[in-house]
Amino acid sequence: MVMALHLPWDRILRLDVPLILLGMFLLRRAAYKAYRLFVYPYFASPLRNLPGPKNHHFLIGHTLNQFRSGHPNQPFVSWMQKWPTAPLIRYFDVGNADAVLVTSLEAHREILHAKVYSFQKPPFFVRLIADIVGFGIGFAEGDEHKRQRRALAALFSTKNLEGFIPMLQSKASRLSDLFEDVIKHDGGVVDIVSLYSKITLDIMGQFALGRELDELAAAQTSDTSPASSMSFHACYHELFEPDGVGQLLIAINSVVPIRWLPLDANRRFKQAHKMLRSQIQAVIDDRIRALDPGKVENAGGKDHISPRENNDLLTWMVARKYYTDDTGPRGRSEQQILTFLAAGHQTTADALTWATQMLIEHPASARRLHAEVTDLLLRVRQDGGQNLGYRDIESLCYLHNFTRETLRVHCPGINVARAASHDVTIQGVLLPKGTTVLMQPAVVQRNPTIWGPDCDEFRPDRWDALEGGETGAMMDPWAFAAFSHGPRMCIGRAFSMLEFKIVLIELVARFRFDFAEGDGRRAGEIKLVNPSPMLRPDGGLRVRVRHLDGGNSGERSD
C-alpha cells in the first residue's frame, strides 16, 4: 500500500525538470487565454455594461461582421443608429479583446484634446503603416510629436500656402489636358479614380520634394537588378496600393511578421520599398548639397537654391536644419516625406472622386458652382489678373459649402484608431490600458442627433444655416470630423482644402460630368473596397466628361 502511494511521485520526479516547467508554463498560458476569452469580457471587464452588439465570434470578435458588411463604415454607422445617444459603444476585436466606438462629441473632445496623450496609435496600425513610412509626424508620440508639429506648423501658414497656388493651378490645368485627351480619343469616358490618383500623387511629389515624380529614376542608384527600373509611381503603388495578395500579406503582417517568407509579393514589396527610399534619398542629398554644401560629402553639382525658390517640404526641412539628428541627414526628412505622400495623396483623390459623383447626382449644385466660379474668373480678368489668388478662392462661398458637404457625406478617411496607453476614464467609463478606441468621421457626421434627420442627404446649403447663428450641437465645430481634431488633427488640412478647391474650380469651369453609359450608379449603389482605410470605389468609377460650352452647364435638373 505504501509503494502504491509513492509510485506516481517517483515517476514525476524522474521526468525532465525543463519539461515540467514547460508544461506548467503552457498550462498557465492556456488558463490565462481561456480567462481572457470566456470569463473576463463578460464578468470582469469594466466595459461589460456598455451598450453594444452581441453577434460576435469568440476568436475574431466583430471582424467578420466588418468583412461581410460590404462597406468600410459598417457595421459601425449601424451601431450608432441603434444607440445614437450613447457616448461609447462596446464591441469586440480579435481575440475577444475590448474595443469601443466613440459616438458623442464630448467623448471625442476628451480623447482627442483633453487627454490626447493618454492614447497612442494601436500596435497593429503601427506595424501596418510605420514599417513603410517610418516614424514621422503621423506616428510620433508624446513630446516627440509635439516637437515635430511645432517644427512643421509654419509650413502651413496662409503666407506659405499662397506660394503653392501656382503649382496647384498648373497641376489642375494638366488634369484638364488629360480630360481633353479623353474627350478626343475615348469618347469622354474615363475612370476618374485612377486619373485623380495620378494627379494628386504628382501634387504631393511637388509639395514634398519640389520635383516631378516622373523625373525620379532608379538610375540614380547603383542597383542593376531588373526591378531597379521601377518608376517612382510603380514603387509607390506596389507599397500602398498592391494587388489582392499584397493586401492580404499587409494585413497578416500587421499581426504576425511574414515578410521573410519567399513569396513573389514579398519580394516585390521589399524591392519597391528599397527603390522608393533610394530615389527619395537621392533627392534629399541633392537638396542638402544645394542648400548647405558642408553637410554632405562630395558636395557640389548643384547651384545654390534659395528656400524661397523651392517652396516645398524638403527645402523647408533642409534649410532649417530639421534633418540634423541621430538618424543622420536623411532619416527624419525621408520619414516625413513618406508620411505626407501617404497621408495626402489618396485622401484628396478620393475626395475629388466623390465630389465628381455629387456633381453628376446634383446638377443644380453643378450649375451653381459653375456660375459662382465663372463670375469670379470674369471679375478677376476684368481687373487685369490672370489667376485666382488665395483670397479669391476663399471668397467662393458655395464652393466652400460644397467641399465641406462632400467631406461630410463621403469622408475619404474611414478610421481614427487609438489605444489607451494606460488606464484612463472617458465620460465616466474606465478604459483599461490597451483598449482600442475607434473614431469614425461617418459616425459623427451622419449622426441624426448631431446633424438632424436629414443627415444622410447631400445639401451644401445646410452650412449657410449653421453659420447663420443657429444654436445647439450642430454648431459645434467638432461635428465636422473629416480632418480629426485636437493636437493631432491633420496638419495639412488647409493645404488639402486649397488643393481640393483649386482642382474643382478648374473642372467646373470647363467640363460637365455625366454617368457613363451602362454605369449610372448613384453613390449608395457603388461597390466599395472593403475592408479599406479609405472610402474608395472598387474597380474604379467610370464617368463621361464633356466640354462645357458657354454658360450652359447641362439640361438636366434635380
UniProtKB/TrEMBL annotation:
Q: Which GO terms describe its molecular function?
A: heme binding; iron ion binding; monooxygenase activity; oxidoreductase activity, acting on paired donors, with incorporation or reduction of molecular oxygen
Q: Does the keyword Secreted apply?
A: no
Q: Superkingdom, according to UniProt? A: Eukaryota
InterPro entries tied to this protein = Cyt_P450 (IPR001128), Cyt_P450_CS (IPR017972), Cyt_P450_E_grp-I (IPR002401), Cyt_P450_sf (IPR036396), Cytochrome_P450_monoxygenase (IPR050121)
Cite the binding residues for heme: C490
Keywords linked to the UniProt accession: Heme, Iron, Metal-binding, Monooxygenase, Oxidoreductase
Locate the transmembrane regions by residue number: none
- Name recorded for this polypeptide: Cytochrome P450
Question: Source organism lineage?
Answer: Eukaryota, Fungi, Dikarya, Ascomycota, Pezizomycotina
